[in-house]
Amino acid sequence: MNSFGRLLRVSILGESHGSGLGVVIDGCPAGLPLAPEDFEPDLARRRAGAKGTTPRREADVPRLKTGTLNGRATGAPLLVWFDNEDVRSAAYDKLADTPRPGHADLVGRQKFGGFNDPRGGGHFSGRLTAGLVAAGVVAKRLLGEVKVQARLTEAGGLSDIDRAVQEALAAKDSVGGFVECRASPLPAGLGEPFFDSAESLLAHLIFAIPAIKGVEFGDGFEASRRRGSEVNDEILDAAGRTRSNHAGGINGGLTNGNELVLRVAVKPTSSISRAQRTVNLKTGESVELAVGGRHDACIALRVPVVLEAAVALVLCDLMLLEGRIPRVWR
Amino acid sequence: MNSFGRLLRVSILGESHGSGLGVVIDGCPAGLPLAPEDFEPDLARRRAGAKGTTPRREADVPRLKTGTLNGRATGAPLLVWFDNEDVRSAAYDKLADTPRPGHADLVGRQKFGGFNDPRGGGHFSGRLTAGLVAAGVVAKRLLGEVKVQARLTEAGGLSDIDRAVQEALAAKDSVGGFVECRASPLPAGLGEPFFDSAESLLAHLIFAIPAIKGVEFGDGFEASRRRGSEVNDEILDAAGRTRSNHAGGINGGLTNGNELVLRVAVKPTSSISRAQRTVNLKTGESVELAVGGRHDACIALRVPVVLEAAVALVLCDLMLLEGRIPRVWR
Amino acid sequence: MNSFGRLLRVSILGESHGSGLGVVIDGCPAGLPLAPEDFEPDLARRRAGAKGTTPRREADVPRLKTGTLNGRATGAPLLVWFDNEDVRSAAYDKLADTPRPGHADLVGRQKFGGFNDPRGGGHFSGRLTAGLVAAGVVAKRLLGEVKVQARLTEAGGLSDIDRAVQEALAAKDSVGGFVECRASPLPAGLGEPFFDSAESLLAHLIFAIPAIKGVEFGDGFEASRRRGSEVNDEILDAAGRTRSNHAGGINGGLTNGNELVLRVAVKPTSSISRAQRTVNLKTGESVELAVGGRHDACIALRVPVVLEAAVALVLCDLMLLEGRIPRVWR
Amino acid sequence: MNSFGRLLRVSILGESHGSGLGVVIDGCPAGLPLAPEDFEPDLARRRAGAKGTTPRREADVPRLKTGTLNGRATGAPLLVWFDNEDVRSAAYDKLADTPRPGHADLVGRQKFGGFNDPRGGGHFSGRLTAGLVAAGVVAKRLLGEVKVQARLTEAGGLSDIDRAVQEALAAKDSVGGFVECRASPLPAGLGEPFFDSAESLLAHLIFAIPAIKGVEFGDGFEASRRRGSEVNDEILDAAGRTRSNHAGGINGGLTNGNELVLRVAVKPTSSISRAQRTVNLKTGESVELAVGGRHDACIALRVPVVLEAAVALVLCDLMLLEGRIPRVWR
Lengths: 330, 330, 330, 330
Prior knowledge:
The structure is a homotetramer. The first copy, chain A, is of the alpha+beta class.
């Protein structure tokens, strides 16, 4: 459902073209300093603006509606809310009947009996990741010295990302990309056998981010082509230091104290200006659709900060579970 | 923790070299026919025996200790239990102090303060997947006409799997592999926004399987190198049939009615007979370790049926949620 | 935490004297007709105004911020939000240091390290039940023909409730009361062994309502003084009709098709104008406190509609679980 | 469902007349000393034997099947299992068609489509509380100096319990009773707003115990008849000591540091030897049923230790949540 987490639980709500959207963060330790401006740097990273991102401009002013007093978390649920402002649904009107290939338009309609909000993707919109990013800001602060950093390493198969995006724009098309995320320093032992392995929880939350189609840890898929002698990390001392980090910081589902390393595959934005075949649901006719509206040529450009949020939230929940983050922040 | 699932909830318990291991399945519809022999085919697939798998032989006789009467599920929790029989812990004795590289030995010890059961990996052992397979048998039966099938497509980078395993054995080493899983026919709309996307739930459970280091859906990582026009699946009719299936059967986190296609990366078995450096935790000295005991040269050989179980369990839970599987089986 | 429910999950957020408060309802079937005015009748019942209730006046205008479109639920989370308007915190200023006897002031402060919002009880305020009532309106609608009705049967030990309240007011004191709730017609079989018995779930949610100190089903405490032959309900036919309903509609944790009958004990409002001893937390001195501000002489007067909401939410979740409420409302 | 708890999670499984029954305890801190004999005192208290309890004799030998090594918890799930030995189902044969008034026989059959195990109540049997008691033993040990003690204060309306039981036996009838439970010393602040108040969690688990029909905290139902000035506990010092304990140790859903005091209403055993009317489900005829088999004249006699287990489990989970019980026990 729309909630995730055991001790730090986030709930996503809202729609792309409704009154707004937000996130409820339950379980945040009381006393954590939090001001609206703390959210700005990460929200700015997620926000559109660079070439290749949608021209839609949202101020994304986070409103701390509940759960803070005098600049600190109170221990009650935090609601971080964003009003929708730059909403122009007109471009989406025709989409109501002509579902975009690669998008949730049709399945959303099927699942919810046609009652879902189709405007701008509604509750399926990538815009909802603003709430995730806001929750990530809280989680990062709770993580203290643990730094979580993600970056786009490749787009459309090229390490020259600008070139890839330019080419896609020129072709009225879009491109996918790889995003890598690292986190350290981490204690050994985060993760809970059998079903809440660190990889399980991370992948669960990461695959909730729209457009993610693959997740790998450490050597990941490459490890599957190798020998055990190549990917085992030899152990150097009793503290668990290792000669290499092929495992990406996780053994047996538990963090091992090494840097956490994971990579995600971001598919190309589904909405493209180039014509594609779809169906008119009213008439049943096959039609061509060139998606207008405002879209990203490379949604992967905006994924790093969202991925960081997901990783930070999971790590934070596991740290709380281990008693490594206090229930009251002083 | 050791439970997973919302309406069909499985709990894994037991150890590799203790009295036994098992799985509790809660939420199984009453009336489902279940006999011990129903478990045999899938357990046989998981069982060791083929070249490249461990010489440990376990009869793996499933005991339906609770939850059935007269060959049918009663609606109460099912405990499927396996006694451990072929236990030889001697080979593991020295492992207590010399953690195997790539294994959970050291992190398990760190997390549980040295109180974890180290014999044969204890609760971290791949042997616990017998319980998962047993639960998968129940889930597959509940899925009815929906078929879930996985196969090893590549080992050590080779599609000639025998050759890859032979070479690894000869080198006292191990190899990883790719396993692909497909499921169909599936209804459109399985998955729950925002956090319980079909990919999220599947990846959560799949990453609980030991040795899995990557999961991708549809074109997965390859999609990240492509253009939107290449990976969008053009829509053919109002029912949602598409020209292609690059998405692997999932849009916006919901199944779209197409075949579900996913692939996992299985790392090489960590335990190898070839010497590797580790540390003696008692003395603090760096030592060489060649793992004796009985191990798989290619654990990926045994993964397909475990992966099927994971996929079937998630699909089953989502089908129950949609009311597509009755609470009483008649 | 601040969420409850398995298929229909409600999350409470907000504070008495902050920007507002609300409830997130996740899992509401798409298509359910919902307009702001649908909430008015139940909100009016909860609202202050009658003699014996607080003079605080809140318009309690429910804002459907998310999850509806064109007057129907979309299947995405519903946020029903209430802005706080009639906030006068001055009366509470001195309470920050002199915790009210019988209230959460001191324990809230202890639990949250002094960072909790103390104004008007903050997140502990009875005002948060407005969110619960709003969720109850949705649940009642989903329940269709199942009617849930509660009434105050006694206050301060008297069945003449007005008299009890008048006397309490005259004495600058407060009184408690009994509230009885009934629901029917209900199908047999709601409730989930072992831990989610119908009584368990109902009591869980009911005890979240401020001021409730006791819950009993059917003959309840009185049954404990009786013989089995007196409280067993003789069975009349194969459908399960019974001669009596001492069990209050629940056997073995499952509804039995009879009317659900439960009673709750509401303690007297803690805030009274009469002086009581407490401590000044700054000085450590024992002081007398006569609580000003605006309070109810008999909070039990406002409990019935809140209790109905709690009962309706639990029944609704159990009905969804049994597939008796569709996931899409047509 | 059949699991309860957030950090310490118990799962109940098994049947009265099947192969056995047990409890899985997940989340028990590694290192906790546990031997089979530790369970004996509490199991003995639950066991039948005293006048007024069933003549069924079960050795109730707890088998620690998983989760311990060398007399200590390993951190993996504990399975405490009891084989059924003294099973005589014959007496129950006729019950399959003539449901006992006041029992779960008929609703269990309705809910599970007739596939439930009817022998001795199957999964609804009070015998399953042996698993709860076993889990309680673990919880009590984790609670350390916090003592949880329950006692039967009244049976059939009489404080002379022996007399009440004798009279019921003579009348081939049964009687109910009151059980009071107290726990201390407790820290302030256990419980989680809004929905996981201490009362909510305690009542949830307590109402899972068969035959419980009412729960009250502190003055409970009596408080509803009183004035605020009578039931508020005046505060004596900054630590929160109070002049009285009408609240039973809970304010605003949080423990306040005072002794926890709660009382439960246990209804009379449903199975009585005296004839009662029920229906023959096969013929549809109304028949008289005098229940043979082996039953308790006063099941309340055996409730105290079960109630202690429930209370201890909830307190333990809340203490873990507050970091007051370490994740590794040294």
